[in-house]
Amino acid sequence: MRPSPSGHFWVAAAAARSREWILGPRPRDVAIFVQAGAIATVLLEWHATQVAGRWAYAPGMPVVPGLRVGILPLLQWMVLPPQVIWFVRRQLT
Question: I need a labelling partner for 77 at 20 to 30 A (CA). Which of 5, 9, 20, 32 fits?
């Protein structure tokens, strides 16, 4: 199970007090959107690999020390959300 970008949209919308935050995102809104996704990713990846044993990382997967969570799933939430915001804003305006 992966974190839902739409759920993180609503976290940012609640913080911005507007569901239209994506039309003119402030750096704070983007940061909240990214942080919500990153936190959910860490929690879900940790639970799936360490608690539930649903999958394991390949030996070549770099992990965050201490958390034992893969760096690549976490980096996705650093790289993709700004692109998603740009694309959605482009489509709505």
Answer: 20
